[in-house]
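To the structural biology subgroup,

Please find below the input and predicted structure for Adenylate kinase, which we are adding to the shared reference set this quarter. The sequence is reproduced verbatim from the submission form. If anyone notices a discrepancy with their own records, reply to this email rather than editing the shared folder directly, so we keep one authoritative version.
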Amino acid sequence: MNIALFGPPGAGKGTQAKELIEKYNIPQISTGDILRNAISQGTKLGLEARSYMDKGNLVPDEVVNGLVKERLQQEDCQKGFILDGYPRTTKQAEKLDEILSDLGKKIDKVLALDVPNEDIIERITGRRTSKKTGKIYHIKFNPPTDEKMEDLVQRADDTEEVVKKRLENYELQTAPVLDYYKAQGKVVIVDGTKKPEEITKDLIRILGE
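Predicted structure (tokenized):
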């Protein structure tokens, strides 16, 4: 089962990916993890990626695509995988189809967690981290019971201004990718405003036992 998981920042992709990994025993694949691993292992593509990152530049598509192809050929991906944060553009989606075709595979389902922007903003701007324990809370949904509010801090990128910009970028980049997969009949929109355990049940119902 080969899945691509989409959703804006704060939609709960990480939470749902963990549940799907456990349920189906397939790996989660994110370009961030792939890049870190390739760089730490000193692979040819990893060193090439690092040369761009060290200069503060974006890693080009051909390098990212090459790293993804290498990752998809590994043993733990034979039963399937969950792509998270890739493909980010229509060009990457087209290249991914080529890569998978070469490997005799295809994307089976594209799951898109749908959460209104105002909910995302509330979720992210309400996050706080304890200076003392490092625990993460939410001032509305998960307030601390044994820590003081003055010991909690907000991350610099959790402000409303930054979140709105991230949502704009997500919409600009991702909407065309979803359209690409909609044309293939692979996209399933999932209500991401439900409780996490209810969303997991919905995903399993879509994917099957």
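Summary notes: The first helix runs from residue 13 to 24. The radius of gyration is 18 Å.

Regards,
Lab coordination
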